[in-house]
Amino acid sequence: MIDIVSYLPSKRKQTSSGWISFNAPCCVHRGESQDKKSRGGLKSSSEGWSFHCFNCGYKASFILGRSLSFKARNFLKWLNVPQEQIEIINLESLRHKTIHGIISDIKTEKKIKIEFEERQLPADLDIITQEHTQQYEYLKNRQIPLNYPFMTNINSIRPGIVIPFTHNNTIVGNCTRFLDARTPKYINDMQQGYVFGTDLQSKDWDFCIVVEGVFDALAINGLAVLHNDINKQQVELIKSLERQVVVVPDQDKAGMKLVEVAQEQGWFVSIPDWPEDVKDVNDAVIKFGRLATLMMIMEAKETNKIKIEIRKKQIVKRL
User: Fold this and answer.
1) Strand-by-strand arrangement of the 48-53 sheet
2) Domains of the chain by residue range
3) Rounded (10°) CA dihedral 42, 44, 48, 51
4) How, if at all, do strands 170-178 and 186-189 pair?
5) Which one of 70, 92, 98, 285 is most buried, by most CB atoms within 10 A?
6) Stretch 180-191: mean pLDDT, rounded?
7) Which residues pair with 173 in a beta bridge?
């Protein structure tokens, strides 16, 4: 095994707890400004290492006996570790894999039962109908199917749309999208690891499409992670659906962060060649229609790392 510390920048400092701080190499590769304040932290041992950037949030780790992950490979590459050496690390690690490691992998892959606590919706809600003109027209203009139980708070001083969050047809939270020009635009009551749209999926579908926003998901019966990253609990929930996954990021700088998780999990990434005024799936549905949008998503799905990186760079360049 290589001494990873030897590849760190010469300007570094080690704490009494064993963490080594240095200028993180990941930030410039993820569209962020270069780290000049030693926001990168690494802790190593004979069993592996763990890295965390407190500037751009990038995390990577390696445990002896496991394959190098996509994130770990990227981190080593950014430290200028030669590609041949990276492959040697991976091979040597697999040689050290014990029966305990194999059992651990099997346990990890076992299907996990995922549950959320039931929650109450806010008080004084009405189901949205044509009588709620502003809310009804907003949904209609965004081409959102009106068969979902959208609600509005009749006593709120800010007009808005309340979207119930369900899991196994039980209400587990909600989201309010305000329709005035004030901030915040959204307020979420969301449990850790929740993914919106699992109840929109049909059992006979071979694919599920993962997007960022709730209206993106509603426009195509997809899954929404409700932010520009996917945490571990959400990954497990998506995997529990047992179908092929297509991740469609928003076509902006922040949206490209979804791509990293998709690549690490071996999921498809789809970045269709949409016009510059189409930033997300809902924009595409408004411009092209639901069926055409779904066709473009499926035609653009890709797992080739080089092709995905080219599309990411094209998106970032035009911003």
Assistant:
1) 12-14, 20-22, 40-45, 48-53, 59-63
2) 4-109, 125-318
3) -10
4) antiparallel
5) 285
6) 93
7) 165
